Amino acid sequence: VEGLPDRIELEHEEMYGETFIIPNPDELIFISWFEGGEVFRSGFTYRRGCGKVFYFRPGHEAFPTFFNKYVQKVIINAVKWARPLNMPKVQLGEIKESIMPIANPTLNVIEGLHNKK
Q: Which residues make beta-bridge pairs with 48?
């Protein structure tokens, strides 16, 4: 929740509601509520072995949800949280040319996700 307000309000969003049949999460991060009184567990975590899983349901891609700076911050925080720690150093081979060209390598980049601070 670093860098986030107490709540994130999305003006126009598709409603998802319970029952959402999943194993009990290790930690519940976000609960969404809608005008009709529906609620949905929209952010939670699991730890499985050495892995970490963050589930996040901010909304539908047809709405401008993923352009919201707080939604982007949640995703950035989740990637940082889920990154592997204490992993052995990996030696990668040398890549001489790509298998297929990348038309626009920055097309799907979330601002701040790949920026080193």
A: 51
Would you state the structure tokens that stand for residue 90, as one six-digit string? Answer: 């990996």
Whether 1 contacts 48, CB under 8 Å: no
Is 112 contained in some domain? no
Domain count, the chain: 1
- How many H-runs (helices) and E-runs (strands) does the chain carry? 1, 3
DSSP-assigned letter for residue 36: T
Where in the sequence is the domain holding 47, given as residue range(s)? 28-82
C-alpha of 44 from chain center: 10
* pLDDT per position as a tens digit, 37-80: 888 899 999 998 878 999 998 877 777 888 889 999 999 999 99
